[in-house]
Amino acid sequence: MAAESERVDRSSHSMDKSITLPPNEIFRNLENAKRFAIDIGGSLTKLAYYSTVQHKVAKVRSFDHTAKDTEDDPLYEISMQEEILARLHFIKFENAYIETCLDFIKDHLVNTDTKVIKATGGGAHKFKDLIEKKLKLRVDKEDEMTCLIKGCNFVLRNIPHEAFVYVKHADSEFRFQNTHPDIFPYLLINIGSGVSIIKVESEDTFERVGGSSIGGGTFWGLGALLTKTKRFDELLQLASKGQHTSVDMLVKDIYGGSYVSLGLTGDLIASSFGKSATADKEFSKEDMAKSLLHMISNDIGQLACLYARLHNLTRVYFGGFFIRGHPVTMHTITYSINFFTKASPPMYLLNKVKSRHPNQYSWGENYAGSSGLMSTSPDLNPMQRARSGTFDMLEMDRLERQLVNLPLLQDPSSYIPDTVDLSEDALAREYWLYCFEEALDGVVKRAVASQPDLPEAAERAEKFRHKYLHKLQTLRHQPFAYGSLTVRSLLDTREHCLNEFNFPDPYSKIKQRENDMALKYFQKAVKSLEELSWEQRQFALVRGLLAGNVFDWGAKAVSEASLQGNRGKEPHCPPPNILKLLASNSSPALNDVTNNELQILTERIAAMDPVIQSAVKEDRLTLVQSGSSSPCLDLSRLDKVLAGVVRERHTDLVIIEGMGRAIHTNYYALLSCESLKMAVIKNSWLADRLGGKLFSVVFKYEVPLDKKPTTLDHVPVTPS
Question: Coiled coil where (predicted)?
């Protein structure tokens, strides 16, 4: 996808038609593309299109249990149905490939009724006739700056870990920023051919406050003249291996050491390329490229500092292909910012999207179709470099539900969902990557078993295996490819890859069978609870919740125990009179119950139990969707309806249950109300890390500093 980079026009550079473009890797779902937009700079083309994707979903529907004896009938039926999903595709490639790409689009564009392609960038005029001839679409130009700012606002709000701080030599070089609704004001340093500096105050209020003609095009153009190297990535490779001190004149070369009274260290650059005027020797390409990179990056960094200070802005973002994916450029700019401000390092944008109407829906990245942040080193990850040409892809799916912050987050701006950042913890990273690789055979078998009547399921499952394994191998080489690497992101990537090959709910039949079994024990469980004292009932309630949490088919230890027939205790249902609001997944993830399944289950329980029936009828027991389709939980991206109900009902206790939601995520989450985080540790490595044993219990009750704890018998409980 495409962040912008411009370069000086090279009229002698012919278009490259030698590449092949596999549609399942690059221009995906092109046959169902509905709208197009294109941004063409001096060197790079960024294409965006909106498509509709047909995908399978597992639907549950309640049987009619009123006409006959239904004791042996299943609770609900499961059917696979087709649904239409809206998806945005972003692709970045060099202008050298534009004619080949346009031919490819023309040959595969079959279901579109659009007559117009929106365009921005200087190259849009240059290639206007070619685009209209190839695609038979009218080129309609949009205001580039307006689209740029709206696009930046869009990704900052919708893609977690889109912005990051780069710290060279740190345990994790990339420190990612989570999404937050309050993104204004900020300063955007957009580095293309030149540099544009834009002050952004609101969604529609921004101005270009400055800029420079010395930018990415300068580095590319002068670099090509100095080294005879024509490709941008090759120039950066040269720079990463060079020593600028052989070309640059340093303070110590002039004064023999530091200039203490002015606070200038001896290693500081006094004059870029200063030694080349007097030295009687040839300089290496690597050293010249490194000196040039330092010269341009230092200039940009100083300009950014001056404009930020002038406009009293502390939030500064850098974007553009000069930045994206190139640690050597980010390091030099970061060094410059640190030198001139002695303050917090700048933030960089992974991708840059240009958009006109960004805030009508919530969106989520589809990891199955995105290429992620690549290393510039061909030696670091040869798998990624094997792609045809230089193509970057980002895919985003429009979500059914609008997602917002949980109103009870104590400080949404500092909330981090994940407990451990695997990109920082090498030992944990290697362990979890190994775990997910080891579990792959079981996931493939489960996927095939979930569709016994479809003979092609085995072939699709093998394609899933290949794709997810490739993702894991990419993340082993490039942990920051999709932002912070966490257990949650590994789980979400797996779910996305399963959906990619039409396995929307591999555990649907297991859930159906176990829900049927649990329902038969409901009345017995309630009766046994009613016979207990209040204190005994609370312990039984907790034991029941934890027993239910043990039955996790995603955990290897539990799966092995279950397959051996060791099912543990019967889960006890909680006393219904203390429940207030129950949130469950909107879509399937492992064997977690979904909102649709829970609605059917609650309806049947209400028919059996007058207390539950009364609670549902009087709206004292409310079932809502969480907006999540993950075994983990991000409290900054919850269903807007759920957030509204939480606010309206003045919820004062939140229970977060399960290893994914309470341990892998939210273990350190701070809420403005009382909270209870509870889980059974079903992984021996994690148990050891936490100082316990396999199947140890976490029961973490927290009270905000400004509140006094209340007794549980007077508090409405909000399980999540």
Answer: none
**Hey, what are 470's tokens?**
């490739």
pLDDT band of residue 179 (cuts 50, 70, 90) is confident
Supply the pLDDT for residue 659.
Answer: 93
Rounded CA-CA distance 598/573 in Å is: 13
Q: How far apart are CA 524 and CA 517, in angstroms?
A: 12
**Coil vs helix vs strand at 504:** coil
Q: 95 pLDDT band (50/70/90 cuts)?
A: confident
Counting every residue written for the chain, the total comes to: 720
What burial class does residue 96 get, using C-beta atoms within 10 Å of its C-beta: 0-12 exposed, 13-18 middle, 19+ buried? buried
Cα separation, 517 vs 27, in Å, equals 46
pLDDT band, residue 428 (cuts 50/70/90): very high
Mean residue pLDDT across the chain: 84
**Residue 459: which residues within 8 A CB-CB, separation 6 or more?**
none
Q: Kindly report the pTM of this predicted structure.
A: 0.84
Element of type H or E holding 264: none
- Helix ranges (H only) for 394-456 are 426-438, 440-449
Structure tokens at 393: 């892809």
Q: What is the CA radius of gyration of the chain?
A: 28
User: How far does CA 474 lie from the centroid of its chain?
Assistant: 15
H/E run at residue 560: helix 556-563
Q: What's the token pair of residue 477?
A: 């080489």
